């Protein structure tokens, strides 16, 4: 009988708990996306390190288009350099050099 009373007490305790708790909702704002130049710098540093030009050139092109919206001259210059970088895709040394050159123009 005592075991039954203890089990009943424990089950009520677990069901009821220590009382109602209220939680305040806190608004969370997502972090701002890094600027196009910062993203482009990361991609170009990778090419400058590895010498591999792959599908990242499409993303580079999109980032250059974003840069062109605010700085047309810089965007046009980078777009011309991107064509040269794509042409150097079979030559790792040339790709590294072109990526380093493009980093200087950012």
Report on this model:
The chain has helices spanning 2-16, 36-50, 56-70, 72-87, 92-105. It is mainly alpha-helical and 106 residues long. It has a domain at 56-105. The longest helix has 16 residues, at 72-87. It is elongated. The model has no long low-confidence stretch (mean pLDDT 83).
Which short descriptors sum up this protein?
106 residues; 5 helices; 71% helix; elongated; mainly alpha
How helical, in percent, are the residues? over 70%
Spans of at least 5 consecutive residues whose pLDDT stays below 50 are: none
Largest sheet: none
Shape: elongated
Strand content: under 5%
Order of helices and strands: HHHHH
Mean pLDDT: 83
- Determine the structural class based on helices, strands and strand pairing: mainly alpha
End-to-end distance, in Å? Answer: 81 Å
Count of strand segments: 0
Number of helices: 5
Rounded to an integer in angstroms, the radius of gyration calculated over CA atoms is: 29 Å
What does the secondary structure layout of this molecule look like, with pairings?
Elements: H1 2-16, H2 36-50, H3 56-70, H4 72-87, H5 92-105
Helix pairs in contact: 2-3, 2-5, 3-4, 4-5
